[in-house]
Automatic annotation (TrEMBL):
Protein name (record): Beta-eliminating lyase-related protein
Keywords linked to the UniProt accession: Lyase, Pyridoxal phosphate
Biased composition (Acidic residues): 11-26
Keyword presence, Mitochondrion: no
Family the entry assigns: Belongs to the threonine aldolase family.
Start-end of Basic and acidic residues biased regions: 1-10
Pfam family, one: Beta_elim_lyase
InterPro entries: ArAA_b-elim_lyase/Thr_aldolase (IPR001597), PyrdxlP-dep_Trfase (IPR015424), PyrdxlP-dep_Trfase_major (IPR015421), PyrdxlP-dep_Trfase_small (IPR015422)
Amino acid sequence: MTDLSEKNEQNENENEQNEKDQDENEQDLRKRRLAAWRASDRVLARASADRRIGERLAALAEAAGEVYDLDDWTDVYGNGVVEELERRTAELLGFPAAAFFPTGTMAQQVALRCWAARTGNSTVALHPQAHPEVHERSAFSVVSGLRTVRPTSEPRLPAADEVRDCDEPFGALMLELPLREAGFVLPAWDELVAVVEAARDRDAVVHFDGARLWECAPHFGRPLDEIASLADSVYVSFYKSLDGMSGAVLAGPSQLIEEAKAWRHRYGGQLFQQYPAALSALVGLERELPRLPSYVAHAKVVAAALTDALRASTIPWSRIHPPVPHTHQFQVWLPYGTELLNEAALTQSEETGVTLFRRWFSPGCPPGVSVTEVTVAAEGLEWTERDVAAAVSEFVRRLDLPALPAERPGTALTGRP
């Protein structure tokens, strides 16, 4: 027994050391990636989280005076600059009131539990690839007492008949616009209107997960307030598209927002001071929001150039999804493992100063297939079709693939891998 106990203890120590080594390796790799991306002269998008603390603070200090009176007092528990952000966001979305939250996870839990109390039904209909189902550790059920049903499992938002024919009653329909995990995809305007009407026919409220709602206007051909008006409440994020530090806003009817603020306090979201996040959000509304339509338009150019360049390469098949992006973000699928693709992308950044792809992932992919997300923002506007082709050529060269065969049966792939 003593020998067995010693053996178990030894195995536990080895496992702990292996986990520690893995964490250290991942941290080293992260620093390597950040250094390469920061040093790159050419990128399609430069994320705020790629910057050093001093750079981020300096940029905020330089821009903040353009959007708010810096002689005003700092906020305390949500007044001052936070209230101004809430007011401006509510106005942009066409709602009478809004509440600032430290995270979208908290904002949406609060919104849906408030609606559950009003409808008397704690069931939420949403897509299985929606953010709460994939990235929030079952927070809806574990923390907020909500349960979910899924009108569809197709890699798109649900259709009107799927909502209308859902075999379980639900009090709220939650729609993520765009649906990120499926490729930042959106329905057509008429389809969205029909889905909302189908939910209303079932006496359900409609909530938009609008973390990236800001860039949806070009696809729908409608202003933000008209899009938001379809829903009973809307959540928007400030760091995903607007380059803010953090934070989210829940917008909706005044009574709902007052109740949401009470729950925000209960959930631990009543922070003492939030002026850096609020100021960076205001800067994003002022600077980035007007530029988003140009990003969306150029993403279509970049996606088309990627399609042509990858098809002309030695890669047996590739997939741009959606083929014509709905927003300024889209997916690229390739038939290789993440280790090979990530090393090729990173060495390209380090050796050429050009970052084409950032990180590749395999969860949810078939064996031997990986996917990456491409974002086109301000610096991406400078890329021409020739620039994209040259970057693809450099990337493929680092994959060390065999020579191009005479015929490649997989080149014309049209479906999702």
